[in-house]
Amino acid sequence: MAGTDPPAWPQCVHRDAGERCRGHRVGSYTACLAHLDSGERAAHLATLTPGADLDHRGTPFTQSLLDELLAPLRDPGSGPARVGEASFDEVRFSGDAELGEVEFGGHCSFSSAVFGAGVYVREVRVGGDLRLGAAQVAGDVWLDNTDVDGDAWFYGARIAGALHFGVRVVGRSAVFKRMTCGNAYFTGARVEGAASFEGAVIDGEAAFDGVVFEDGAEFTGVRIGGRACFDGAHFHRSRACFDGADVGGDMPFAGAHFAAEVTFDGAAIGGDLAFHGARVNAGAVFRRAVFRRTARIGPLVCTGRVDFSDAVFEAAVTVEAAAAEVRFRRTRWASTAALRLRYAGVDLSDAVLEFPVTVVGRPRPFVSPEGGPIAEPGLSDARVRVTSVMGVDAAYLVLADVDLTDCLFVETVHLDQLRLEGRCVLSRPPDGLRWIRRRTLAEEHHWRATRYGGRWTPAPPGVETHEPAVLAPVYRQLRKALEDSRNEPGAADFYYGEMEMRRHDAEASRSERTLLRLYWALSGYGLRASRALAWLVLAMTATVLAMMLWGLPQSDPDPVSVGTTDGHRVTLTTKKPTPINPRGPYTRRLSTARFEKSLRVVTNSVIFRASGQDLTTTGTYIEMTARLVEPALLGLAVLAVRSRVKR
């Protein structure tokens, strides 16, 4: 270990307070550069020319000694100092360390170095790696107008102050794993290789605005105490990974570009995530993320999937996203939430809602802070399609202006308390005279597809097909939800679906199913006025015809009066003869006069309940039957009309 184990280089013989100096011997001397006498040092420096390699590992340095070392390496005319490879591992630097206008042909290494104050590097070019791994800096680190052709290596560095990484280009990788610092500023840097901040700890704020990561960036497990700004950052080729990150403040990504997936799996975010003008080409993953005080996420435009599965929202939040798919599987909201979405297929399976959550299909594009619409390239179908609410306690769920064509409702709890606002579209049966136009559930499509084939939508792979006994309660609860919101015409379709499922329920008794079939055939469960009226017209036509053939007598019977007289008083008894059944061919009974009488009898029977017409015995029974059946059909037609217009 540095400081205790013998060094791997020829060690200086100088001792201070009994402790031997760890500095690298200079040339043929027995001491390091710091412990050479003035003559020896001058003689050694006289041998240096621009481009020479430097190896002063373990040497104690001051600023004046560093300047003295670099002086003979500068080109004539006070040009930049030119160094080959420089090894300053484990140096001990007293006070501030300033390194300016130096060109390193190879690596420049300060690994495990200890700086008593700050480090200031400006106008430096490193042809190889720049290494500060495990270095300890008591102040700030400034790298201004610096270029690194190789790796920038800060693995395990301990910086008490701020890191100002003003490196214009890092030719290969940038490694900041397990680095600690106060604040960190990487504004405008460009990293040609992979960048890794895994396990880094930044106590204050971090600024990565305008940074270009050509081969992605790894922020796994990073801890940032304050705000982390990524405005205008570009992540090319590989993904941007923030898995397990812990950020205490906001994380703005305005104008950022993600060529591959960006992941926040298991991250903890303390503030808002702004994505104004950002482009996410593949997908954004927030699985198991915890949003502590996040009030707003978005507007996020993503051509792939945005996944909030198993995430936890601890504060009231607004999520704005335009994406191909948005998942909220097993997501938990501990406060209110407004999900304002565009284009997306939304999956809410098993989500936990402790407060009201509103899913809104936004018809207009999101607006930037400047007031203009945010572009949505690669997205075409603006419908917001809710694909599943299975396992959700719908008591706190509000769906507004969404497409429920493919939504799965089975296993939803308190579905009767679901609120449907605006225009919520459900699927329709296939076209054709056989099927009634009504709103149906996707699960009914799945079940009917197993019986009637492909004109009904079959269940997607992995989705269970449920029997009518399971679907009937779902329709019933949705009907109640619409009735409670005073939308009885909308609830009528769900009542029809409930009755259909009961009619097809193999577990119901035969008598119940027979009664439901009759109810369906006569009036569509009291919801199809045209069907009831058709049966009424048919029944009245049959009744009129029966009356003409058998119900009206041969002729209207005239009253007959019979009396006696005893010279002072006359007693009369009037009797009406029994109607005579019609005789003769049926064609002669179908006359205009008999039709008019029959029609009057039937109309009075249906509407006014009494005809006042003398009828044959058969006609009396026909009229009794008509009085029972036809007003019921008329009532079903009136009921069907009322169910469609009542509010």
Major β-sheet, in short?
31 strands, parallel
Measured as a percent range, the helix fraction is: 10-25%
Mean pLDDT: 88
Which structural category fits the helices and strands? Answer: alpha/beta
Give the strand content. 25-35%
Low-confidence stretches: none
Task: Report Rg.
Answer: 45 Å
Q: How many distinct helices?
A: 10
State the shape.
rod-shaped
Strand tally: 49
- The separation of the N and C termini measures 83 Å
Polypeptide structure, described:
This protein is an alpha/beta fold and 647 residues long. Among the domains are: 442-508, no CATH class; 529-561 and 575-645, no CATH class. The longest helix is centred in the last third of the chain and has 29 residues, at 617-645. The radius of gyration is 45 Å and the shape is rod-shaped. The chain starts with 14 loop residues before the first strand and ends with a helix. 43% of the residues are buried. The mean pLDDT is 88.
